């Protein structure tokens, strides 16, 4: 899988696998042989539900978890051999913030810079640049424990940029944030991409994938089930429009036979029927003619959520 462009690849994987031995001698196959090609300068996303294998893949790319088998090259090097050298060129934003709550915002950046061996004066200078970038200059002297969730995320991102990484890995960057905080964060990530940083992120939010990613892979059960740009995936796996018919939970099954044959594909959810159609308004008129009486009806454009439902038979967010 993959579409290598003329830009060099920052990540190449072939048959990449990760298994974990668990209690009782059983093996969990978290990643079951995936192929990846991520060109420099892209925002590349792993989209999938909980347990799909996204974090396990990210941890192998971050050189903190060895692969079980397969090939993996990051920035042209093998993490099993050159992990330390690769890590120096990566920025990592983990799923859970692990900031030092007792230190001030600015000190958190300083300490991280020192960890990467930057001279003291350069650490303070870089910290101030990144505070501005993260829109946290006014919070420079504040204790981390007094920051909002969105500010903490922005600080974690600022910290991951102390070593001027070429590639930034973000594991569910906006999980738990309110919509406004998510938009501020997306804006900062856009800026980084404009500056040439390759972004690799995991998410189970389809809007995040659509907003941020040039390309993405849909992951489920440790394998890749589709790859493309958000627009390509929607064009390839869904129709342009969806007619959503809402029912009192349970009553949607009675309507199923009435809509049969009207459209190419119908998905049944606990309180809804989704009818995939090139023309939602026309289909709505047809189902009304057939005597279907939903609580409400909505025509909307297809999203990545529909693609995911089509590919896996399940919703992205359980
Ligand atoms: N250290 C571990 N030991 C045993 N099993 C693990 C370990 N890490 C992950 N797994 C298992 O591997 C599978 C994939 O997990 P992973 O965390 O990679 O998925 P994910 O897509 O990132 O999910 P989430 O969105 O919940 O983070 C799951 O079944 C998980 O329970």
From TrEMBL:
Give me any GO biological process, just one. response to antibiotic
- InterPro entries named in the record: AAA+_ATPase, ABC_transporter-like_ATP-bd, ABC_transporter-like_CS, ABC_transporter_ATP-binding, P-loop_NTPase
**Keywords recorded for this protein, A-Z:** Antibiotic resistance, ATP-binding, Nucleotide-binding, Transport
Cited Pfam families: ABC_tran (PF00005)
Q: Name one GO molecular function term.
A: ATP hydrolysis activity
- The ABC transporter domain covers 11-246
Record keywords: Metal-binding included? no
Note the topology in the membrane: Peripheral membrane protein
Sorted alphabetically, the Gene Ontology cellular component annotations on this record are: plasma membrane
Q: Where in the cell is it found?
A: Cell membrane
Q: What is this protein called?
A: ABC transporter
Gene source species: Nakamurella endophytica
Q: What is the lineage of its organism?
A: Bacteria, Bacillati, Actinomycetota, Actinomycetes, Nakamurellales
